[in-house]
């Protein structure tokens, strides 16, 4: 079932349903994994700035839900995965990433373009999520510190902060998040220059099909004969084996009649 927002149709994103499916990736993760905090927090945020650019766009297939894409980028950057190609690959193989995207598979180009299109809004919501994590008592959000003072204990965690301190803390968060964005941009640029349109994890074309991968070691470089070679090779008796086991016709060739 497709999702909708202000009349615009998006690809479905139902992370809570994914968690209750048989063989759900989420069921295999530790209960305290960061991904669950994000899955609980992200849907409650204000997404108007992210949905607005798609409201009047009618061309092409329905886009991925911006909430899913933001959740994906938040988790990736918090755990130190910056390159769009690596994020796309993780969406196919990593349990926490699969818990976010479910059956959806955004490719690296989609991930990179989304970040570029929503860069400012994404940085703002990143700051918001980190502050919510601090209010929830988390000292770190993955690799991202939620508080520059590394506050410990409930009393310190919940004490009132001055306006000046809060302003400084937001500035610190923005600087840290901008550094993450810069790292993501630089890695994407480097991989784009090296790989172009390729993902970077492709196997050789002749090994894509499973039966060809299985057959390849037999056919190339292993020294083992193929089925055709096995049947076409002459027997020892006809190509010169032990002379003591051969008759005169085999040693000298058959005589003409």
Description:
This protein has helices spanning 15-19, 34-41, 48-51, 66-78, 84-93, 95-101, 108-117, 119-135, 154-157, 163-195, 210-219, 227-232, 248-252, and strands at residues 3-5, 8-10, 140-141, 144-145. The longest helix is centred in the last third of the chain and has 33 residues, at 163-195. The chain contains 13 helices and 4 strands. With 257 residues, it is mainly alpha-helical. The protein has 2 domains: 3-202, no CATH class; 206-252, no CATH class. The termini are far apart. The chain has a two-stranded antiparallel sheet. The protein has a two-stranded antiparallel ribbon with strand order 3-4. Helices cover 51% and strands 4% of the residues. Strand 3 (140-141) and strand 4 (144-145) form a beta hairpin. The model is unreliable at 148-158 and 248-257 (pLDDT under 50).
Mean pLDDT: 76
Tell me the fraction of residues in β-strands, as a range: under 5%
Order of helices and strands: EEHHHHHHHHEEHHHHH
* Count of helical stretches: 13
Report the radius of gyration as a whole number of Å.
Answer: 30 Å
How many domains, in number, for the residues?
2
- How many strand units? 4
How much helix, percentage-wise, in residues? 40-55%
Largest sheet: 2 strands, antiparallel
Q: Structural class of the secondary structure composition?
A: mainly alpha
Question: Oligomeric status of the shown chains?
Answer: single chain
Low-confidence stretches: 148-158, 248-257
Strand order in space, largest sheet: 1-2
The global form is globular
What is the rounded distance between the termini? 85 Å
